[in-house]
Design a protein that fits this description.
InterPro entries: Brix, Brix_dom_Rbsml_bgen_prot
GO biological process, one term: rRNA processing
Number of strands: 10
Function: Probably involved in the biogenesis of the ribosome.
Protein name: Probable Brix domain-containing ribosomal biogenesis protein
GO molecular function, one term: rRNA binding
CATH topology: Rossmann fold
CATH class: Alpha Beta
Shape: globular
Number of helices: 3
CATH superfamily: Brix domain
C-alpha cells in the first residue's frame, strides 16, 4: 500500500469477481486511492490500516447477491459515517463494453465533470478532492481520468480517459439515500 493515499476502497466480506473488478478499476483510474483486500478483517483493522496509510476516507462497496449494491463512506479522521449512501443499480465492467478496453496505466490526475448538476458530483468532490467542472469540452486531454456524471433514471458515473473514451467500469446509481448516523 502506498503512503499518502486519500481514500481507501474496500468491499464487504467475500466479494464477487464483478465487485473486485470494479474495485481494481476504481483504484487504477482514481489517483489518491488505494485498495485494502477485506478478507476476514474487522472494521477496527481496516481503520488501523487506513490511518497507517494516511487516508481521510474509506469507501465501502457493499454487495447483495453477488452484485455491488451500495457505496458508503467513512470519515477516518472524525470517526463517523457520512450521512449518505449511494445505491448502485448496476455496473458495466470493461469486459461488457462492445469494444475491447485495455487497462491503462494508473492515473495521476482526475477531474469530475457533472452534467447532472446534482448531489453525486458534490459527494465525489468532497470524498476524492478532485476539481468539479460542468462542461465536458474544457477537459479533453488535460486529465488522465474524467469522472463524468450524467442524469439518467438516477445517475450514470462513467470513468473516461483523457481522450474521453471509456477507461474503466461505469456505475449506475439509482439514488442517494440520506440516513441518520
Amino acid at each position: 500500500m502506498e503512503g499518502g493515499c486519500k481514500v481507501i476502497i474496500t468491499t464487504s466480506r467475500e466479494p464477487s469477481k464483478k465487485t473486485l473488478e470494479l474495485v481494481n478499476d476504481l483504484v487504477n483510474s482514481l489517483p489518491g486511492t488505494s485498495k485494502i483486500v477485506r478478507g476476514k478483517k474487522s472494521f477496527i483493522t481496516l481503520l488501523e490500516e487506513a490511518v497507517a496509510c494516511g487516508a481521510r476516507y474509506i469507501a465501502f462497496i457493499w454487495e447483495r447477491r453477488g452484485m455491488p449494491f451500495a457505496l458508503l463512506f467513512y470519515d477516518v479522521i472524525n470517526r463517523e459515517w457520512k450521512p449518505y449512501m449511494l445505491k448502485i443499480s448496476g455496473i458495466k465492467t470493461r469486459r461488457e463494453f462492445p469494444v475491447f478496453i485495455s487497462r491503462r496505466p494508473p492515473a495521476k490526475s482526475a477531474v469530475i465533470v457533472d452534467l447532472s448538476e446534482g448531489e453525486v458530483g458534490d459527494i465525489f468532490t468532497e470524498i476524492f478532492g478532485y476539481p468539479i467542472l460542468y462542461s465536458l469540452d474544457a477537459v479533453r486531454g488535460l486529465f488522465d481520468t474524467v469522472v463524468l456524471i450524467r442524469r439518467t433514471d438516477g445517475y450514470l458515473v462513467e470513468l473516461l480517459g483523457s481522450d474521453l473514451g471509456p477507461r474503466a467500469s461505469s456505475i449506475r446509481i439509482k439514488k442517494v439515500v440520506y440516513r441518520h448516523v
